[in-house]
């Protein structure tokens, strides 16, 4: 059996002296494991990097076997981000979530297309990465896994404007009016998660990451008795620091 498909490299691990075990998200076939012969060689080092967009070729005698993979490089995403830690954290988090959350060999074409788009945008704006776009991608990941949030109207009043919170239990949006005295028990919903044109600020990114992270942990990883990927935790740390720096800078301006 043999196929060819666009793919995003999610995870790499050494196998023997020169080969690699590769986990990749393909456009039409979902997540695949494969063996790459000579993948640790200098000649192939630039090709096999987490986050790279490639055209992958997979071959095996039987469909259920591990199979072998070769590839042609389309875009070495990580190489555009080397001097930008936040961008690298976003890329690592996306790859880690896909690698650990998605079941093998189940197609997720919309998720692949959205991730490839995000990586393309980030490659040309690494210094100012599209954090809100990434967080909206995490919401799509939840949806693709069957745990989509209901963010189009208030669960209490039914209104579609002024949505400000999300119930941590049901995943349904709640307006400021509908929250009432329960707002302290709800998760803040930053508007940049609802508006594709809004980028938001560091405080919004942190709130959005807490929101999506709560449901990723509760609905996806807790069911398997596993924590969120370490790369996702590193992204949260980076967002905390950004939010703290922004708040400190604002306080300094107010004092001046």
From TrEMBL:
Job of this protein: Involved in DNA repair and RecF pathway recombination.
Cross-referenced SUPFAM superfamilies: ArfGap/RecO-like zinc finger (SSF57863), Nucleic acid-binding proteins (SSF50249)
Gene3D superfamilies from the UniProt entry: Nucleic acid-binding proteins (2.40.50.140), Recombination protein O, C-terminal domain (1.20.1440.120)
GO cellular component: bacterial nucleoid
Pfam families reported in the protein's UniProt record: RecO_C (PF02565), RecO_N (PF11967)
Cited InterPro entries: ARFGAP/RecO (IPR037278), DNA_rep/recomb_RecO_N (IPR022572), NA-bd_OB-fold (IPR012340), RecO (IPR003717), RecO_C (IPR042242)
Domain DNA replication/recombination mediator RecO N-terminal: from-to ranges: 1-75
Protein name in the entry: DNA repair protein RecO
Entry keywords, A to Z: DNA damage, DNA recombination, DNA repair
One GO process term, biological-process aspect: double-strand break repair
UniProt record similarity statement: Belongs to the RecO family.
């Amino acid at each position: 059996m043999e196929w060819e498909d666009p793919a995003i490299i999610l995870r790499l691990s050494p196998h023997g002296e020169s080969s690699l075990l590769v986990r990749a998200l393909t456009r039409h076939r979902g997540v695949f494991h494969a063996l790459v012969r000579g993948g640790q060689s200098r000649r192939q080092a630039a090709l096999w990097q987490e986050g790279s967009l490639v055209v992958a070729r997979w071959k095996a005698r039987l469909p259920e076997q591990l199979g072998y993979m070769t590839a042609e490089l389309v875009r070495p995403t990580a190489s555009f981000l080397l001097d930008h830690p936040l961008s690298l954290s976003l890329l690592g988090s996306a790859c880690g979530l896909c690698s650990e959350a998605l079941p093998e060999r189940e197609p997720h074409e919309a998720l692949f297309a959205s991730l490839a788009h995000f990586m393309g945008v980030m490659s040309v704006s690494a210094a100012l990465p599209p954090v809100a776009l990434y967080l909206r991608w995490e919401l799509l990941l939840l949806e693709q896994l069957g745990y989509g949030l209901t963010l189009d109207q208030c669960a209490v009043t039914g209104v579609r404007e002024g949505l400000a919170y999300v119930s941590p239990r049901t995943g349904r949006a709640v307006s400021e009016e509908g929250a009432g005295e329960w707002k302290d028990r709800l998760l803040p919903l930053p508007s940049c998660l609802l508006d594709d044109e809004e980028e938001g600020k560091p405080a919004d990114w942190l709130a959005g990451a807490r929101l999506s992270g709560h449901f990723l942990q509760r609905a996806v990883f807790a069911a398997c008795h596993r924590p969120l990927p370490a790369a996702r935790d590193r992204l949260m740390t980076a967002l905390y620091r950004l939010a703290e720096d922004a708040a400190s800078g604002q306080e300094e301006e107010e004092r001046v």
